[in-house]
Amino acid sequence: MNNLHTSNPELGHNQTWQNRKLTFNYCTEKGLLDKKVDELRDMELPFRIELLPIQFPNPNELILNIEEKRNGNLTIE
Fold first, then answer.
1. 3 in a domain, yes or no?
2. Please, which residues bridge with residue 76 across strands?
3. Do the domain assignments include residue 17?
4. 0.90 cut: is pTM over it?
């Protein structure tokens, strides 16, 4: 796995989501999901642990955005 930067404004939404998915799969395979972020900081990982989000909005604050593109396809963000 390449060095994944999980939060990069130059990446599109889909690329960022794919990177987070790869990071999640890596952590699952290596048994890292139950570890605290502070425990992972000193480990050699293929991504920068400090870039992973650790605080999330409440579900009632989330908004689903659906946009129609010029080609008629819908995108959901």
1. no
2. 66
3. yes
4. no
Cα separation, 17 vs 1, in Å, equals 16
* Residues ≥6 apart with Cβ < 8 Å to 16: 6, 7, 8
**Torsion (CA) 77, 75, 11, 16 in degrees, nearest 10:** 50
With respect to residue 2, please indicate whether it lies within any of the assigned structural domains.
Answer: no
Asked if 49 contacts 25 with a C-beta cutoff of 8 angstroms, the reply is no
User: What residues make up the domain containing 38?
Assistant: 13-76
H or E element, residue 66: strand 66-68
Is 8 a domain residue?
no
Number of domains forming the structure of the chain: 1
Q: Identify residue 42 by its one-letter amino acid code.
A: D
pLDDT digits (tens, 9 = 90+) for 29-74: 999 999 988 899 889 999 888 888 888 889 999 887 777 777 766 6
